[in-house]
Amino acid sequence: MLAITANRLDDGRVVYRTPLGAWSAHLSEAELFETAAAAEDVLKLALSEEGVVVDPYTMDVEAGVPGGKKRIRETIRNTGPSASTVLELNA
Amino acid sequence: MYQYDEIDETLVRERVAEFRDQVKRRITGELSEDAFKPLRLQNGVYLQLHAYMLRVAIPYGTLSADQMQALGEIARDYDRGYGHFTTRQNIQYNWPRLVDIPDILDKLAGVGMHAIQTSGNCVRNTTTDPYAGAAADEVADPRPWCELIRQWSTFHPEFSFLPRKFKIAVVASKADRAAIQVHDIGLRLKTNAAGALGFEVFAGGGQGRTPRLAVKLNDYVIAEDLLAYITAILRVYNLAGRRDNKYKARIKILVEETGPEAFTAEVEAEFAKLQGGDLTLPAEEIARVSNFFTPPPVETRGFDLKAQSQAFQIWAERSVKAHKTEGWASVLISLKPVGKVPGDATAEQIFAMAEIARQYGLNELRVTKEQNIVLPHIPQADLPAVYEALRAANLHADNGGLVTDIISCPGLDYCNLANARSIPIAQAISNRLSETGLDREAGELTLNISGCINACGHHHIANIGLLGVDKRGEEFYQLTLGGAANENAAIGRIVGPGLSGEQVPQAIEDVVRTFIAHRQDGESFNTTLARIGLDPFKEAVYAH
Ligand code: SF4
Fold first, then answer.
1. Which of A40, B308, B492, B521 has the greatest number of CB atoms lying within 10 Å of its CB?
2. pTM, two decimal places
């Protein structure tokens, strides 16, 4: 399955496009597409929303979580840095 | 330290106002992303995996206590409470909102700082020895020259759209603490037989996908001709550097393709046209700028190292450096406590460092290319108090220069260009080498990690280098050995097939154990490697 993801324009945060055409911070709320062809029209629409998001693209989703060749990258985008931050480590 | 004058102040304030307007127009949809992206990059704003990233310039790595304080306040008020010090002697914030960045830049302008020319194909922030002005072995303080380069290169109209980015590094001693040979231009301050200051000039060095050591263009260019000579280099490069292929656009490729001798001849011909002209530095200007950088007076209070605690002595062995003025020392603050994130500091730690500099350190701090901080001027008599203040802020790691003092780029945890993660690998290696005691047993040893071939983590020039690569969606690490960033600069050689993240800590342990087993009489890692070759290391690493 594919979802459409981007970074939000005003703060850069990772977002996913929902079936209602909104953008959510949760992958679980993303609209899923069977194929790239099925996602094409919505991706075009997303690309035209320059005032809301930056550089939308499709990503693989498997069983509700990021999958495919970019699995690690998309997992990190989805859940945050895998490495502990200096704050946690100093706590 | 250099203080902004009216010209600097106006320049920076005008740029902030301009960028504030650009951000506003981007948000309201007046500017497309295509139009906005080059503008934000010119102001140090990248879009990374999770958020925008702001890279702030720290000219030649020198900071006042007030500037450090402001960096902490930005981390606290606009970020997530921490900042990341980089190998370019700068700081990066990982979480600012685009809409807040004009306010952040305003705050920076208030303390004489900015993010200009921290991105784009222009002359970037000049880097230098973090012990400049304090090092016992320097012929003169290199920072006045860095400052003159800063002023000359800021918004330089001819060099704002070079074929590719351009980095200059300056040192003033035989020991190279700024890795000048892997910079587009490397400068070494020296004196001639008559005692007049001048520069040994190197060009064409670099890391990234095509690592190259710089070639020497000129053994001695008199100091007043510095700007004329580097202008000549940049003119030749700007005209002939390749613009058809991003990967072949750096000056190192031009030097290689032209041939060092022919390239030098072109530079010399251009220099002949410029010499004696407007670019000659007037003696009064050199003196004016030099006056901002004065060494401290002799300190008469005494200090007895032997009377200090054992913990202090262990820390001091790795952290206290000789100073050129009697009674003073420089202090290295390692931002690499075992198992933690290399180069990161919390807002509170940044405040603590600012306060220590204020109270004991003549208001001055430096950022090092190893992603650590230096207090360049500390009276020896105050070292115990400084140590206690560092302890209170959890900044007393005693591993400076050891193999756990790892340089690591942000890697795939933050960076949009990364192939693999760097930080968790650094943490795992650091834990392993500390638990086994191998870090202290090995002594001075460098280990650097980059998350991709862009080499921000300087992996090519570490004794032990790790490069993250992507193999069909999985993270792998290529191991290189034998690099060096000092006066014996060298590019590391690949040892063998890539290793998985899980294999890396054991592999590094094997490398370190092999070094310890074979070294003779206090040999450095690279000397041992040169003597015994790669094979023993290879066998140890791939035996598992
Ligand atoms: S080396 Fe690559 S992964 Fe690391 S910070 Fe640079 S571009 Fe990003």
1. B492
2. 0.96
